[in-house]
């Protein structure tokens, strides 16, 4: 499902305009992104949690040249599904 299909489905289910759903979705993404940039966790009860995971620096190998490369430390966003979502999918 693409973003526009998702917006249409939520608008139809909630009885809202597609424009309102689009603005709400954009706002939700902005808030989650801002909180993750600050290193905070965002929990949506029954759905899941968004948080930042730190990855240590490590050595890797370029598969084309077999040359050893250094991969820098970085932060990555992580989503962990909540119990309700997991049970719904099962």
Considering the chains and any ligands shown, give keywords for the structure.
90 residues, 43% helix, 30% strand, 3 helices, alpha+beta
How would you describe the overall organization of this protein?
The protein is of the alpha+beta class. The chain has three helices and five strands. It has helices at 3-14, 18-37, 83-89, and strands at 42-44, 48-55, 58-61, 68-71, 74-81. It has a three-stranded antiparallel β-sheet with strand order 1-2-5. A two-stranded antiparallel ribbon has the order 3-4. A hairpin with a 6-residue loop joins strand 3 (58-61) and strand 4. Helix 1 (3-14) crosses helix 2 (18-37). The mean pLDDT is 95.
Global mean pLDDT = 95
Distance between the termini: 19 Å
What is the succession of H and E elements? HHEEEEEH
Low-confidence stretches: none
Report strand %. 25-35%
Radius of gyration, in angstroms, nearest whole number: 18 Å
């Amino acid at each position: 499902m693409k973003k526009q299909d998702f917006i249409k489905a939520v608008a139809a289910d909630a009885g809202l305009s597609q424009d309102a759903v689009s603005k709400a979705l954009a706002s939700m993404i902005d808030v989650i992104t801002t909180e993750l940039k600050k290193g905070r966790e965002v929990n949506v009860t029954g759905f899941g949690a968004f948080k930042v995971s730190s990855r240590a620096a490590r050595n890797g190998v370029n598969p084309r040249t077999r040359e050893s490369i250094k991969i820098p430390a970085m932060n990555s966003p992580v989503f962990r599904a909540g119990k309700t979502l997991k049970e719904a999918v099962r």
